[in-house]
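Follow-up to my earlier ticket, as requested here are the two runs.
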Amino acid sequence: MTQLTTLAKPPAVRRSPRRPQRAVALNLIAVAAGLAVWTLLGVLGVQALPTPLEVAAKAGELIADGTLLGDALASLRRVLLGFLLGTLLAVPVGFLMGWYATARGLLEPYIQFFRTIPPLAIIPLAIVLLGIGEVPKVFVIFLAAFLSSVVATFQGVVDVDRTLINAARVLGASDRTIFLKVVVPASTPFILVGMRVGLGSAWGTLVAAELIAAQEGLGFRMQQAQLYYDLSTIFVGLIAIGVLGLLMDRLLLLAERHLTDWQERR
């Protein structure tokens, strides 16, 4: 059994400790440069763009009265629920499609068909069939996350090196053992990348999903601010979505590095 584990997980490659520090430094430089350009455009009055200080002041107001926290929690709940449901379904479906040719033949036409349809185009149908409560909002987000993750999982399974599978068979491994000890570890990087893409799709779909008779949420607040040309509130919503999405993506990235520490990285 140890031989199979060795086949699926090559020795870890040590990375220089200076690389994370350099990456953080470059990130900080990029943020500082972006804020400088934003401030300059705001001071010049380009398209009545608010400055970072004005946006920060508006964020302080929304935090003080509890609006921002309530909206962030509502949006986070919808994204997490849709993303988790989409991922939990996508991973087994992707494994089925990649491991069994019959399942692939039955499911792939539907997956590829719905991939070409933007989740936003499903909103009218979701409203008609599911009403205007929380269910259609979560369903649209779920669909966006599911379609991204299922394709990545499927691709991870079919791209497993056949040499590893053949070597495991030579060692006398059963199909179940090959699947658990070779296919699953080898396809884990694909699954995690698919989850990161699915998370981005979930947040990208949020604003449109909250068009469905929402009473709270970051997307709802931005749409309300649009009616009154309240650019500061719109920027607060955009930044809040970006920060929450970035934090969740970093958590997935940490999980990816932990689960695939055997994979060579640049």
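Run two:
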Amino acid sequence: MELRHLRYFQMVAAERSFTRAAERLHIAQPPLSRQIRQLEEELGTELLVRGSRPLELTEAGRLLYEHAIQVLDRVDDIHWSLRALGGSRRTAYPIGLVGSILYGSLPGVLRRFRASRPDLDVRLIEMTTLEQLPALRDHRIAIGFGRLSFQEPGIIQRVLRDEPLVVAVSGDSPLAAEGGPVPLAALVGETLLVYPRKPRPSYADQVLALFRDRGLLPNAVVEAGELQTALGLVACGVGLCLVPDSASGSRGDLIYRPIVEAGITSPIIVSTRAGDDNEATAALLAMVTE
């Protein structure tokens, strides 16, 4: 399997048409069809339901499409990071963060920090809290912002704040019609969407623990790759999802309800290397604290 196979398949899957995909890829349709067929032969399974209009993905095709997006996004990140490194004379300052904290006040802080430090090439890298720990140890990032607490040698973690969680439901959910906060027990009869799927432990385990610690067991649990995918599935009527309150405005077609019980929160945590005397990190921490 080569990257071009994944790019071709991703385009066909996104367009649901060989003709439109070929036009966007600037190649003829017959070679594109052959490349997809070769990919199917290599994988030993069909990826598309041929004859359907528009094209539909098989179960294997949907799985490959999800992974292809992640792989190709990562390849593009590597490409542009290396190009930026080669063309920049500023000192690189990589920051690791989980996507869900970008809905709150942190973007404004990071914007101020970048403006105050023109000598730094501030790079924001999306990664889970679990991924941030080895990245800190290996000096691949200078600081990390996440949501999980770990006892890790050489790493210092500090809770900045505990953010309340709200439940996101579709407009036709029975929970959407009621007003006011909803008890956690009222959610267990619905399908619970959690994210990310991996690596684990993650925010998904944090949410599941909120139910388990109160003696509750959701009727069904479906794992999604990330926050926006989970909310998209909620909009499709698949189930409901607990999200940070700051993310409650990210989709206007959903209803967001607060939770009755106290302590239904997710911490925002900053992680740094123990003994790190980097003055840029100290300046960023001062801004965050302020």
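The only thing I checked on run two: The first strand starts at residue 48 and ends at 49. Let me know what else you need.
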